[in-house]
Specification:
The complex is a heterodimer of chains A (248) and B (387).
Chain A (H helix, E strand, L loop, with lengths): L1 E11 L8 E12 L4 E5 L6 H8 L7 E6 L2 E2 L4 H6 L1 E4 L11 H11 L4 H14 L15 H13 L5 E5 L7 H16 L3 E6 L2 H7 L2 E6 L2 E6 L1 H8 L4 H8 L5
Parallel strand pairs in A: 3-8, 3-9, 6-7, 7-8
Antiparallel strand pairs in A: 1-2, 1-4, 4-5, 9-10
Chain B lengths: L1 H14 L2 H30 L7 E6 L5 H9 L2 E5 L4 H7 L4 E4 L4 H6 L7 E4 L4 H28 L22 H35 L3 H5 L5 H32 L14 H11 L1 H16 L3 H11 L1 H12 L14 H11 L6 H27 L5
Parallel strand pairs in B: 1-2, 1-3
Antiparallel strand pairs in B: 3-4
Helix pairs in contact in B: 1-9, 2-7, 2-9, 7-9, 7-11, 7-12, 7-13, 7-14, 9-10, 9-11, 9-15, 10-14, 11-12, 11-15
The chains are: A alpha/beta (248), B mainly alpha (387).
């Protein structure tokens, strides 16, 4: 469960540009419940990744706080990480290690012993249907295969809360459907899932709750139906444009 | 425990990287000592004139100068009959050189005239030129003996013609050759250490960032300092292995160096190399820390390669500085990493005595610098900018 309260982050001195302040996220608040899929929907550069990075304790908020399963991201960093599985929007796996080695490395770093690691890796290989490439080095993997390995890594320590930053990027239709199915299963088994995307259909098809984010602000939250009701629109796309203050 | 997991992963991962393996285990420790050390040894052997080893000398018409032949024989020349085609056989390298005794040699000598001698030499051939230098100096000695006899015969004291008698006494234990050879050991050891950790340091920091694997890694429940320590130990491992391999291959290269090539003043035996390695070992910690810190400040592997490439000049700097500038082994310079090891290792190879204070200062200065740089690397990893 995530409770985010007024998270703000400003970056100074973007590389390649003169020293200037960029407000990435401003007063972002939202809740994400266990057993539900919460979608962060917003255009590129809206602050989705920065929000997720703050929740994953990679970046410290300038102000505001958030708790992950009751642990504060400002005070209790290691406990937050123990409860959190984070998959950034590029798989970021090690090309010279095999699928199993990639997953085992994270398992061991999360404190699992050798025996538990071996069992857990087998479970994940099974769950994500990776048997065919489990012992191959990941260099040259397709985007779908890479995403699976990265997802397995994020799940390896059985985190209650799972953050997925644009997980369907670069996946083909079948891989996307497969991933969606896995995400639904995870939510059904009681995990809290936060999922960021800029693709409307993706969010509409998958999410129980939607938070629309643009220019670093959450402009609207609710279920798909409530968003459509509030904006008086019939599609999420139109509702989205309304929500961020655009003209139809 | 976490530290060891990171260490193990980095070692396995990088042993599968051809570039790392080539530079860490092959180029620095084996190829470089062979090319530089071996080349130097070979050229020294060629340039060094050995008066103790008997050598064959082809003489044309040896029967015209029996006393000279005896003199040459007593100076380690084994006289042989020269082949008839003198120029061509020297040019082809059948014989190194030929000494020709002209017909009028004996008569000129008897009449008190300058007696002619011809040496056929191929100056383009190092071996031939070297043999000619050796023969020349022996002939000079013979000529001086005869000069003295001629003067005494005419009632003149031969020392009248020696107005100045210069005696050169080299009080240093090393000559120029020795100096270069002595500094080759620290040079190769340090270069191999830098080479050994170079690609690993880039791969575990800038490379990890470029592959975008740093972000998920840093979101794991593990303290940053443990992560940095694991990576540091992995770099340390490769730097250490490189230095040990270099020491072994240098020992093997220098085993083929005959003692007289270095004037008998250098020592490259097993105890010397071991002592040298021990004195240089604090640098393993220092160089690993430098590599980690520099790589952690860079954004991409390309940037890291540029900066670390520039950094490669540093281990070479003391080598060249010490060739031209005579830096005294003062307490202050002994606290400087690399410079102090250069000086200490040279003294070990030259079999000079080493001041215990100097060793202490060198170890302390280098270890302290390594600790500071390591601390800096941890700080760099704790920044948000590291992503």
């Amino acid at each position: 469960m995530i409770v985010a309260h007024e998270l703000s982050k400003t970056f100074i001195g973007v590389p390649g540009q003169a020293k200037r302040r960029v407000v990435a996220v401003e007063s972002v608040s939202f809740n994400a419940e266990d057993g539900r899929i919460t979608g962060l929907l917003g255009p590129n550069g809206a602050g989705k990744s920065t929000t997720l990075r703050m929740l994953a304790t990679l970046v410290q908020p300038d102000s505001g706080n958030a708790t992950i399963d009751g642990h504060s991201i400002n005070k209790d960093v290691l406990a937050v990480r123990q409860h959190l599985g984070f998959m950034p929007h590029n798989a970021g796996i090690y090309p010279r290690l095999t699928t199993r080695e990639n997953i085992s490395y994270y398992a061991r770093l999360c404190g699992l012993n050798k025996k538990t690691t071996a069992t857990r890796v087998e479970e994940l290989v099974d769950l994500l249907d990776m048997e065919k490439f489990a012992d191959r080095r990941t260099t040259g993997f397709s985007q779908g295969q890479k995403t699976k390995v990265a997802l397995a890594r994020a799940l390896v320590h059985r985190p209650q809360t799972i953050l997925l930053d644009e997980p369907t990027n670069g996946l083909d239709v079948m891989a996307t459907r497969g991933l969606r199915e896995i995400i639904r299963q995870l939510a059904q088994s009681g995990h809290c899932i936060v999922f960021s995307s800029h693709i409307m259909q993706e969010v509409a098809a998958l999410c129980d709750e939607i938070a629309i984010i643009s220019d670093g602000n959450i402009s609207m939250t609710g279920t798909l139906d409530s968003l459509l009701n509030t904006t008086g629109q019939s599609s999420l796309e139109d509702a989205f444009v309304r929500a961020i203050g655009g003209e139809l | 425990m976490n530290v060891l997991i990171v260490l193990w992963k980095e070692i396995v991962d990088n042993l599968r990287d051809r570039q790392t393996v080539f530079y860490a285990l092959l180029f620095g420790p084996i190829l470089l000592p062979l090319i530089i050390g071996g080349g130097l040894v070979a050229s020294l052997k060629q340039a060094t004139v050995s008066f103790d080893q008997p050598a064959a000398l082809a003489v044309s018409h040896a029967e015209r100068a029996p006393i000279l032949m005896e003199f040459l024989y007593s100076n380690n020349f084994d006289i042989e009959t020269a082949p008839p085609e003198k120029e061509n056989s020297v040019r082809r390298g059948d014989v190194a050189l030929i000494l020709e005794i002209p017909e009028d040699f004996a008569t000129s000598l008897r009449d008190g005239q300058p007696a002619p001698l011809t040496i056929f030499v191929n100056d383009g051939d190092k071996h031939s030129a070297k043999e000619a230098r050796k023969l020349n100096s022996v002939l000079n000695a013979y000529s001086q003996t005869i000069n003295a006899l001629r003067m005494q015969h005419r009632g003149i004291d031969p020392s009248v013609f020696n107005s100045i008698n210069v005696r050169l006494e080299d009080v240093s234990s090393d000559g120029f050759r020795g100096q270069i050879l002595a500094s080759i050991l620290p040079f190769l050891l340090i270069v191999a250490m830098v080479m050994g950790g170079f690609y690993l340091a880039i791969d575990t920091t800038a490379g990890e960032r470029e592959r975008l694997s740093l972000e998920p890694l840093l979101s794991l429940p593990i303290a940053r300092y443990k992560l940095v320590l694991g990576k540091y130990l992995a770099v340390l491992f490769f730097v250490g292995i490189s230095s040990v391999l270099t020491a072994v291959s240098l020992y093997l290269v220098f085993r083929f160096l005959s003692p007289e090539a270095a004037g008998g003043i250098l020592s490259f035996d097993a105890p010397t190399i071991t002592t040298a390695w021990l004195l240089a070992s604090p640098l393993i910690f220092f160089i690993s820390a430098v590599l980690m810190t520099v790589a952690a400040t860079t954004r991409s592997t390309k940037e890291a390669q540029t900066y670390l490439g520039l950094l490669m000049v540093f281990p070479m700097a003391p080598f060249f500085i010490l060739q031209f500038v005579n830096i005294k082994s003062a307490n202050l310079t002994m606290t400087l990493p690399m410079l102090s090891q250069y000086q200490l290792l040279e003294r070990v190879v030259l079999k000079d005595s080493i001041n215990a204070t100097h060793i202490g200062l060198s170890v302390a200065g280098t270890s302290l610098s390594a600790a500071l740089l390591y601390y800096l690397a941890v700080r760099l990893y704790s920044r948000e900018k590291v992503l």
